[in-house]
Structures are given as C-alpha cells and as structure tokens.
Amino acid sequence: MSAGAEWVAAAAPPELLDNEVHIWRASLEMDSPALGRFEGLLADDERIRAERFVFDRDRNRFIAARGVLRDVLGRYLQRPPHAIDFVYGPRGKPAIASGVERPPIHFNLSHAHGLALIGITRKREIGIDVELIRPDFATEDIAKRYFSPKEIDCLNRLPGERTTEAFFLCWTRKEAYIKAKGDGLHVPLDSFEVSLSPDEPAQLFSADESRWRIEAFVPSIVPEERYAGAVVAEGKDWRALYFEWKQ
Prior knowledge:
Elements: E1 7-9, E2 20-27, H1 32-39, H2 44-51, H3 56-77, E3 86-88, E4 94-96, E5 105-112, E6 115-122, E7 126-132, H4 140-146, H5 149-157, H6 163-181, E8 193-194, E9 204-205, E10 212-217, E11 227-234, E12 239-244
Parallel strand pairs: 1-12, 2-12
Antiparallel strand pairs: 2-6, 3-4, 5-6, 7-11, 8-9, 10-11
Helix pairs in contact: 1-3, 2-3
C-alpha cells in the first residue's frame, strides 16, 4: 500500500543532512514511572492541555507523545528536553523557538490510538500524519464531507474490501499536506487531491504541488494493528529515513 519503511533503532542521535527527512515512531503505551518522568519535562501550557482530557488513557497518551517529542528533539539540538521552548504559528503549528539552532530544525508530530510519528527536517517545512485503519470511521458521509469529487469517485471504484484502506491513505495524505502548509482547517480538504489507491504511489495534486513531495509508508509496529502514515515536506530532493524510538 505504501513505501516499504525500514525502521532502525538509533542508539545515538543520527546526523540530519539537509536532504533528509527523519521519521520516528514510538508506542505511547508506557508505565507510570515513564509517564511521570515525561510529565516533568512538559511546559506549563502542555500540562494544562493534558489536564483537559476527560479520560486517563487520552491524557497519558498526550503526555507520552509530548515527552517523546521533547526527547527526540533534544537529541538533535543537544539540549535537555525540558529546556526546549516552542512557539506556535497563526494556525497553531508548533515550531522551536528562535535562537536555538542555525540552520533551523523543523518538526511535526502526529499520534493516534497509541502510536506516535515525528518528522524532523532542516530548512524545510514538514507535515506528518498517522491513523489507525478502522472501518467504523471510513464512512461515505465523512468522505463526502472532506474528500474531493474525484477522490470519492476513485474510492467508489475500488473493490469493497479495499475501500477502508484507501480511505485512510487519502485521509493521512491530505492531513500531512495541510499540516506541512501550517494552515490547519483553513485549507478545505476538498480544494486539492491526493492519490488513494493502495496500488498507486502517493501523489499530491494541488496549485502548489511543485513545492512539495509526499511519501506514504506503513508505520504499524505489530501486524494485527494496521496504521496508515504519510509525510509531506518541501522540495523534491529529500529522502526519508525511519527510526524506532525506545525508552
């Protein structure tokens, strides 16, 4: 369905070249000591966001995701994870506060159902998305609300057993694109198109498609849990490298 990703456990901070996109995946199912350690790394605004979750599971996964993000960024910046400051764009896209490093590191985080993905680049914007493939969400009503007419037509032409997978290939690719642009929901999801057939490579069709390249991959840690993943980054000259985060 997507690019074959070879996930490598990185014992030391890998060198990040200008023409590379580093993608990290991490399980968010952690024990209490690990969660306590990560909660201690968070800034006040992150703790406030964590406390807003109604269910402990969602709160714990948020803390774990932000903790892993800080741990990964700390490796690249060679700074203590708790000392990393974030700023947020007009539409809420996070970035590292200026003055930390030159050339700058760009990043993006996505997590769903206990799995997190982090994309890291130098000097190029990036967006990343992950979703658990599940039939209950892949409904016709949702597709009509967020997909373009051409995407809906492609979805309807696929055999029934492949439509759920195709739905999430479409969803993650579109989300990765709007996250890379940093415009959030101000970019209508039906104003651009992506390929979605499991037999086709990931493609982006938009007014600014020459600015971006899209890559799709399988981020699942265990075969019985099927996830879709996609990353969009500026330029056409980059290659993706995949890393496994370990506690």
